[in-house]
Design a protein that fits this description.
The protein is mainly α. The chain has twelve helices and eight strands. The radius of gyration is 24 Å and the shape is elongated.
């Protein structure tokens, strides 16, 4: 029989005042009947599930994805995988994202509209579902964010917040050139992320052209040196998904 409204309110009120200690739960478990203990065990289970769901939702919101993409229906056929690394290695059979454990980087490179950003967004969403912090930026928006933080005297705090993510996506590298100041700020992020977190760069430019993005061949070489050490280079080829499905023909 369901509890009365008054009794249910007393339970809620007691829960607001304190969380049950382990010793109290153990004592009540010993005193209760099997049916009562079965009912009692549902509370901590429901509490944990609620907290984990809230954590995942908060991580996804903080990630600030343009769109919460998934891999459902994703077109994998346009990707050329590097030797020794493929779809199953990226996701792993249990979707545990083992490449994050190894602090590996990814550089999806290739034609416009072939799924690079979709992959990056879906990886972020999946990481958040696994309660693993992720952040998503375009290269230009990240540089603007860092500039504002530096000008406000809080660059160290901003870098520390970025460093708290297990997965950091820098989307559209090369779509807009960086000035010398922006290039230095982005290099600082890459340098601090090296062997500490996984970074995904999506780009349509081969490494040989990154010097034009950073405006400095030596700085581009320093970034590339860090990325390739523990990095993978999936290549995307084919016609743009948006063009294939465009209303304007």
């Amino acid at each position: 029989m369901a509890a009365s409204d008054g009794l249910a309110e007393r339970v809620v009120s007691a829960g607001r005042r304190c969380s049950p200690a382990k010793s109290v739960l153990a004592e009540w478990a010993r005193r209760g009947t099997p049916r009562q203990v079965e009912y009692l065990v549902g509370h901590p289970g429901a509490e944990c599930a609620s907290r984990e769901a809230s954590k995942r939702a908060n991580l996804l919101r903080r990630c600030a994805l343009p769109q919460a993409k998934t891999f459902d229906g994703y077109e994998w056929g346009q990707i050329g995988w590097p030797d020794g690394f493929g779809r199953d290695d990226l996701l792993s059979l249990s979707l545990s994202l083992s490449f994050l454990d190894d602090r590996e980087d990814l550089v999806p490179v290739g034609d416009v509209g072939t799924g690079k950003t979709h992959m990056a967004e879906a990886l972020c969403a999946l990481a958040c579902q696994r309660a693993r912090p992720a952040r998503f930026f375009t290269a230009s928006s990240l540089v603007m964010r860092l500039r504002r933080a530096r000008d406000d005297g809080r660059l160290d705090r901003e870098l520390a917040q970025l460093g708290g993510a297990e997965l950091l996506v820098i989307d559209e590298l090369g779509f807009l050139p960086l000035d010398a100041d922006g290039a230095r700020l982005l290099f600082q992020v890459v340098s601090e992320a090296y062997e500490a977190q996984s970074v995904v760069f999506t780009t349509n430019l081969e490494f040989s052209r990154w010097g034009s993005v950073f405006g400095d061949d030596q700085m581009a070489a320093a970034v590339i040196d860090r990325v390739v050490h523990h990095g993978r280079l999936p290549r995307f080829r084919g016609e743009s998904y948006r063009v294939r499905h465009a209303l304007m023909q």
